[in-house]
Design goal:
Helix content is 64%, strand content 5%. The chain has a two-stranded antiparallel sheet. The protein has a two-stranded parallel sheet with strand order 3-4. A two-stranded antiparallel ribbon has the order 5-6. β1 and β2 form a beta hairpin. The chain is built from 19 helices and 6 strands. The mean pLDDT is 97. The chain is mainly alpha-helical and 442 residues long. It is elongated and about 100 Å long. Bound molecules: arginine. The site of arginine (ARG) has 10 residues, from α7. Its main location: cytoplasm. Its EC number is 4.3.2.1. Belongs to the lyase 1 family. Argininosuccinate lyase subfamily.
Amino acid sequence: MQAINASIGFDRKMWRQDIRGSLAHAAMLAHVGIISTEDERAIREGLAGIAARIEAGDFPWDEGLEDIHMNIEARLTEAVGEAGKRLHTGRSRNDQVALDVRLWVRDAIDGLTGQIEDVMRALTARAEEHAATVMPGFTHLQSAQPTTFGHHMLAYVEMLSRDRGRLADARRRLNESPLGAAALCGTGFPIDRHMTAKALGFDGPTRNSLDSVASRDFAAEFLFACAMCATHLSRLAEEVVIWTNPYFGFVTLSDAYTTGSSIMPQKRNPDAAELVRGKTGRVMGALTGMLTVLKGLPLTYGKDMQEDKEGIFDAAETMTLCLAATAGMVRDMVPNAARLREAAGAGFSTATDLADWLVRELKMPFRDAHHVTGRLVAKAEAKGSDLAGLTLAEMQTVEPRITEAIFGVLTVEASVASRACYGGTAPENVRRMAAEWRERLA
Ligand code: ARG
């Protein structure tokens, strides 16, 4: 029973939150006259002593005392006697744990938000440096159109800014205090839930005691925001894996973010990127686990809910690692501009520019221009050249109205510079957008 029942092995991570909650509860109990000010002082001092012991690593955790709440309360009573036994008045472990988990998730959101912003800053800095560094833009992982390394970096800044927004939304919704819901129905003691809510930085108390102890949707939302962010980091990691492959040779990572092989001396493996990609599964698993715990639970509290914590802790810790590794890799990687430019021009990547020229200059309907360009690509392919390698005469066998001017749109530089619509790939756009992000993130 003890082995399956005890949660102290993992929920001790919430000791700060548990003590914070108890301090607020005790202060309120004294304020409304349920306990004496002497008892409140004894509790406060006792809890400070416990915090110091935990911090110092000499707190005697006891599995027999089940969880973090009982461990702290039992030691408090040992230390301060009677007063410690009065702390639990008008409270239950059900609202206590709901409170602790909310506080823990709220702290995690604040920490992860700062880390997401750090990655965004790193990406933005690379975007400013490489606003005009052309690289191939892919669809289907096939050459599509030239873009710039800076534009590519800023695509991830946008994704991460939405992840940050999702965490902020989750935080807004979770920021209500369940403390005082007691076991499930509230309490007959004249407690002041508004006072404890305020003391703990909540916008106010929750409105329904049953909901307060039964609900963990705040945690599921947090885990979804984490899973989405992990998915974004995983896509970037996957690109780093591809880009560092020597057949691509788009970027290099230093030894700081790669490892060697124990047998193959030439190896430089992008392990950090692979681990970011691989760890995404844990976060997704935590979300699935949370929803699964909740889906069949009748109101209100069930011990199943003790299973909420490990997934939350693991997801948050995994995100901390992955965000730190990603920030480091983004700062570390060196784009190979010459190789990127070469690849940007390969695969007839300016074919769309050619078709657009036919539309603009010859007033050709786009579908016809698409067809003519297809024939020119076939011609170039047969000749073994790129589009700019065709002579004017060769082009004119396909479309006689083509003039010398067409060569002006076939370079990758002209291609990226032309895409100056809002949100487009043009270096001037990228520079402006990166500067905007830099200021917003300052
Ligand atoms: N360790 C428990 C949990 O994490 C605390 C709440 C226990 N409540 C109860 N009625 N047994 O959910």
